[in-house]
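Repro:
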Amino acid sequence: MNKKREAREFCFQYFFHLQLPIFKEIKEELSKSDDESVLRESVNDFKETTNTLLEDKLSTFVLGQIKSTLLNYEKIEAILQEHLKNWKLSRISRVDNTVLLLAANELCFTKENPKNIVINEAIEISKKYGNADSGSFINGVLDNIAKKYE
């Protein structure tokens, strides 16, 4: 597995755990705080609990992706809802929701990596953590988003 995918998987795991009801307060605190040290501490705590080691460059990528996703959360949800054909965001699995959230952030807001790489990485993560149909579902939604936000 490449290093960037490891970083994306870490972001996925971090956001997936934030979607659990017990972490609702933490998510709200992170969303409202302008102090990056709060986010950095939360990410570092999660790294420790998951025994994740990331190079400095990848840690910077992770913090950037998580911060951008939190700052643009409502906008990203609106973008996703617009591109979910015959689906409501609340009805898709948490795995697919989390993968889409992070990939849509990369496609629409951070734009650091080529769209085909972002989409491919999202598909691979969804295949690993999702169900048998997750990969094709993620591909369809993200492809439509990428076309609109080129």
